[in-house]
Amino acid sequence: xxxxxxxxxxxxxxxxxxxxxxxxxxxxxxxxxxxxxxxxxxxxxxxxxxxxxxxxxxxxxxxxxxxxxxxxxxxxxxxxxxxxxxxxxxxxxxxxxxxxxxxxxxxxxxxxxxxxxxxxxxxxxxxxxxxxxxxxxxxxxxxxxxxxxxxxxxxxxxxxxxxxxxxxxxxxxxxxxxxxxxxxxxxxxxxxxxxxxxxxxxxxxxxxxxxxxxxxxxxxxxxxxxxxxx
Length: 230
Hints:
This protein folds into two domains: 13-113, Hepatocyte Growth Factor; 118-222. It has three helices and 13 strands. It has helices at residues 48-57, 148-155, 213-222; strands at residues 10-16, 23-28, 36-38, 62-66, 70-74, 82-83, 103-108, 113-119, 129-134, 140-144, 161-165, 169-173, 207-212. It is found in: Membrane. Pfam families: WSC (PF01822). Keywords: Glycoprotein, Membrane, Signal, Transmembrane, Transmembrane helix.
């Protein structure tokens, strides 16, 4: 999903990520036959970014969240169905609005376009790194994490591989059967919106930095301080 620490400049690119300007409000549920219901793994850790990202991959315009943990993708919505915001009384673990009973918190995918930094100085040198892969290589979406270590620890429960894309979105999988892509595609630093600081790369816009969990854990067993390849 290595790279040398050669350059010290930042390159800015347009990236689809969850932004703070994309919440449209609380609406009465009106299910259309073109809507797509999405199942999110590990829904006790559900966040709007998971729903938004998944709907964006399916080429929908809006993400609707109901009852705190139910994601639905929509082509359009009716503005006259809007109700007072306090009727969407459920919050996700990140405190954003996540719907209510027969109420949906709707987020615009178009307005989720934001600037995300890619960083020529971030590195893919963590032990167990397998390469940069297409964003659909590992299909079990876990949620937003603040480090590679956290993603690996969550995936280690049931799977053999952990992958991070777009800086913070963790996926897991049991097998790795896809060919790798250009390593430079995985050049988004790990979650810079958290307090965790790192020179590690965490995937790209539509690409995953993927790690072999067994290899990663073996390196820590030998020396917990040596999580990076020297």
